[in-house]
Amino acid sequence: MTVLGGFHHVKLPVSSVHKSLEWYRRVFGLEVAIEFVEDGVLRGVALRDAGHTLMLALREDPPRAAGLAGLDPLALGVPTVRELRGWSDRLDVLGVEHTELTEGSVGWLIGGILDPDGIEIRLYTHEERS
């Protein structure tokens, strides 16, 4: 059988690469791994976490970004409930609105984290509820 090994990356459309890049850096601590420059203009970036466990690409495309506003297409994994509480504290310190820690279908989550285009990002534990 042919096997898949998880996601290589996820790409989100954004209205402003610069504005979104700064937000994802500040909120999630992601750093630039690759820049996509076209005709001398930065049009996209690939961001990576410090542990190299995820890659998130941002592509400047305002109409598509507007179309995703209010949708929650991205859920980032957090290993434990304890670490999820740490994320809640971090978001509070940064002044980023979010929901309280909630039981999900599988595991625990924090939702309501809106990027600059109103795209909702959720944090889910890998740890299941007991």
TrEMBL record:
Gene3D superfamilies: 2,3-Dihydroxybiphenyl 1,2-Dioxygenase, domain 1. CDD domains: VOC. PROSITE patterns: VOC (PS51819). Pfam families: Glyoxalase (PF00903). Coiled coil: none annotated. Residues 6-126 form the VOC domain. It comes from the Bacteria. This is Glyoxalase. The lineage of its organism: Bacteria, Bacillati, Actinomycetota, Actinomycetes, Streptosporangiales.
